[in-house]
Design goal:
The chain has 202 residues and is an all-alpha fold. It is built from ten helices and no strands. One of its GO terms (cellular component) is plasma membrane.
Amino acid sequence: MQNSKTKKLVEMSILVALAFVLDYVANIYSGWFWPFGGSISISLVPLAVIAFRYGWVAGFLSGFTMGLLQLLTGAYIMHPIQVLFDYPLPYAVLGFAGFFASKVNVVEVGQRSLYIWLATGIGSIARLACHIISGVVFFADYAPEGMNPVVYSVGYNTPFVLASYILSAIILVVLYKRYANQLVRIQKEKVVTPSSETAASV
């Protein structure tokens, strides 16, 4: 049991670190396109793997941790609530992909791909909602004159979230087709032998 917990923590730590590095690299070039934050990143890939292997709670906590790490790399800060909605929370809700963990782990390949798209799509929609709320509340003054802040926020945030979702989902589908044996976490069922059945009936 202890070894299992240790393995889980090690896996999650490595994958969170990978997500952080992927996002950091993406942010290097994305500042030209999204000056107030945002990037086309595949950091969703390792975070989704955590969520699929260990459920949405593990995915949520891992994403939240990854968002906190981002604050160490020059986050755009205006207000504590804005920080929450632009960094820890958007990555945390990507963990909602874990709602479909049981499906991803047990269904056939074709169905698995469908659930990967669905799961990461739900997480990405939740992430987009966080960014849009932050944009409307805290970045409305940056909207062009006469433009509705909601329209501005949707237009600013949707392209990079949508592109990140599509790229990440494609990569995940390929990974789960080629490396399913390594990625799929199968719960071992208790094997009932004739002797154990006899002992139980005594």
